Structure formats: structure tokens, C-alpha cells
Amino acid sequence: MDASTGLPGRPESSLSPGRPEFTERMEAARALDAGALAALLSDPDPRTTARLAAAADETMRAEVGDAVRFRGLLEFSNVCRADCLYCGIRRSNGTVHRYTLSRDDVLAAARHCVEAGYGSLTLQAGERRDAAFIDYVCRLLESIKTETRGPALPDGLGITLSVGEQSPEVYRRFFEAGAHRYLLRIETSSPELYARIHPPAQRYADRRAALHAVRDAGFQVGTGVMIGLAGQTVWDLADDIRFFAIEGVDMIGMGPYLPHASTPMGSGQHMSDDERAQLLDRTLRMIALTRIVLRDVNIAATTALQTLDAFGRERALQGGANVVMPVVTPVAMRSGYQLYDGKACVDEDPTMCAGCITGRVAWTGRPVEANRWGDAPHFARRKQG
Ligand code: 5AD
Q1: Nearest atom, ligand 1, residue 266 CA
Q2: What count of other Cβ atoms lies within 10 Å of the Cβ of residue 212?
Q3: Which of 135, 198, 201, 306 fits a 20 to 30 Å CA distance from 62?
Q4: What percent of the chain has pLDDT over 90?
Q5: With a threshold of 0.90, does the pTM exceed it?
Q6: CATH number assigned to the domain with residue range 22-58+67-384, chosen from the 4 options 3.40.190.80, 3.20.20.70, 3.40.50.2300, 1.10.490.10
Q7: Helix %, strand %, coil % of the chain (to 5)
Q8: Which residue of 226, 308, 341 sits with most ligand 1 atoms within 8 Å of its CB, as the best mutation to test the pocket?
Q9: Sorting pLDDT into bands at 50, 70 and 90, what band is 344?
């Protein structure tokens, strides 16, 4: 048994890409075979990562096209009722200065997205369920929709919402107010691992029920997981990909777990360069395999990946990812939204981010799809039925 992968030890030669085994495993992975997915994730041959990226790139171009879609990411409040053991803005972290952006600041950020050609806005915040917050979010959604209409965007900005677990009724209200996509990560598809990284009051069954309620409200559904959690094996990660496929989600956001010193999971944790390199490799393989298996969904190259490696986002774009979320949160607030230590772009303002991200995408040679909502084809196909 290999302690790091949880897989029974296998002779290295039988796993090397270029041999028939690689193609066979890819086909088995497409058919959701857990063993094939786990073997591709843990294959010791470093060339496997590039090989998977090339296959993922091919699938992406065929299924969703080569354009990169942008969504401005506005972290509009860090007030949170949840107490996730890994997250820097968890309720119990008393060192965080809490903020909620005013309506004017939110609308200014939305206008910035329009000017930058982003076409879509992702509104993210900590989880709150009180009526004042829910009403505030509904009013924000309505205002953003009406105030961002114009020649380039006749229906206003596309809006993705991400404010945690809510009731089915609240999800319906958010949808009616104008959001059309919703992100709620399952964090890990393993109920046991989920229980280890959350307090007892936050239950896996509730998270899963909330994901179904999101879908029932009419949203395009996004989910995702963290990669590199203590005790997480390649079998868990293989199951994560199977979970995405079985749930039939439209969008995926995945990134490495990164420690935050003021959290129970992150205090005293330090990653060596070797560990960082391995985590990057595993994350890139997860992104590539998710594209290969799910085909026509949207997959984000996340900020956490960029934090792990200066070119992490670019590498994700070269291996299956097709969405980038430049941060549009006002610079004064950014330090308050540190989910993990060392978060990238904390000192930069939205204009700097716009220039930087455009240059980075150009570097990958991919065109940008400006002034579009950029929905995943998967959603339209799911609706047709
Ligand atoms: N490392 C990586 N990702 C994290 N998130 C929260 N805390 C961390 C961390 N320490 C992710 C979770 C959450 C999303 C908003 O941020 O997956 O769903």
C-alpha cells in the first residue's frame, strides 16, 4: 500500500503514459471507473500531467470552444455564520475585520465589470440567513440587472451568486431577483472527510440537499472541492469527479487547500516546496480529468491555484479550464477576505487586475469572450433534456 496515494503499490512501468494502458485508462475514466481515475491521478510518471492536459485541451476545444470566459469576482461581505475548520473568515476567527459593501460600492464594481468587458459578475460573501441580508442581496441583484443594461449587454451582466446554504424558498427568491448561476462547493464528496473539516452542526446531508435546492430553483449549478486535505486519498478525488458527473453540475471550481494560520486546520502548518509542487500537479490533473469526464461544463482556473504557483491559473487554462475570475473587490477590503494565507492579488486594485489578467490570458494564446454571459453548453443540453 502506498501511504501517499492510498493505492496498492503497482509497478511503475505499467502506469507510464504512451503505453496502451494510458488510453485504456482514459476510456475507463470517461466511463467513471474509480480505479482508472485514481490510477491517472497517482501515476508516478510526471509526463502524465502533460498528457492529461493535452487530452483535456482537446476535449475543451471540441465541447465548449477555445475562448476564455471572465467573471468579475466581488467579495461583497466577509460576515459569516459558518465555522468551517479550514477557512480564514470562519465565524470564530476574531482577528478578521468584518465588512459588508454598500449598495453604491457594489454597483460601482458591477459597472467596472461592464467597462472591462467581463460580461458576468460573481457575487460572493460569507453565509448569512437573516432576513435583512437576504433582502439586501435581492435588492442588489435587481439593481445590478437594471443598471448594467446597455448596448454591449442588452440583458445586463450575467450574475453568479455564492452565499452558501440557504432554504429552497430563498434560492427561488435569488433566482427571481436576477441571479442565474449559483456556486456551492461540496468541498469534498466524502461524508467522512466532510465531517472532519466542519463542525458537527454543518452536515454533509444538508450541503447536498442545498445543492439540489439550487438546481430546483432553476440555477445553473456550480460546485467544487478542495484538493490536498489531510487524509484525502486519490480514491476520494476520483469520487469527487464521479460526484460532479452523477450530480450533472454545470460548473466546477476546484483549487488546492491552503492553510490559514488562524484556523484549527491551518495553524502551525507549513508546506515545503516539494509539497507545493505535488499539490499543483495533483490539482492540474484533477482539472484535466474533470474536463475529460464532464466535457461541456465550465471549469474555473481559481485564485487559490494562482496563490499556490505564480503560473497556476495559466497552467489550468492550458489543461481544461475555460473560466477566469478576476477579483473586482475594492482594494481596501481585500485583506478582509483571506480564506487562506498568502492569497494572490490582495494589494492590487480592480484596474490592475483587469490589465494583468488580460495579459496572462493573451500569454496562453487563447481568445477572450468579451461582453457575454458565457454559460456552459451543458446547461442548455440539460434543459433540453
Ligand atoms: N484553502 C483553499 N480554499 C479554501 N476555501 C475556503 N478556505 C480555503 C482554504 N483554506 C474555499 C472553499 C469555499 C470557497 C469559497 O473557498 O472551497 O467553498
Answers
A1: 10
A2: 12
A3: 306
A4: 87
A5: yes
A6: 3.20.20.70
A7: 45, 10, 40
A8: 226
A9: confident
How far is residue 194 from each of residues 190, 229, 232, measured CA to CA in Å? 6, 10, 10
CA angle 176–178–181, rounded 5-degree value: 100
**pLDDT averaged over every residue in the chain:** 93
Residue 234 confidence (pLDDT): 97
The torsion angles phi and psi of 60, rounded to 5 degrees, stand at: -60, -50
Rounded to whole angstroms, how far apart are CA atoms 379 and 248? 9
- Rounded CA-CA distance 263/91 in Å is 10
Looking at residue 317, its pLDDT comes to 97
Nearest-CA residue for ligand 1 atom 7 is: 87
Closest CA to 221 of 49, 383, 355: 383
End-to-end Cα separation, the chain, in angstroms: 43
Sign of CA dihedral 368, 373, 379, 381: negative
Instruction: Decide whether any atom of ligand 1 lies within 6 Å of the 257 Cβ.
Output: yes
> Domain residues of the chain, as ranges?
22-58+67-384
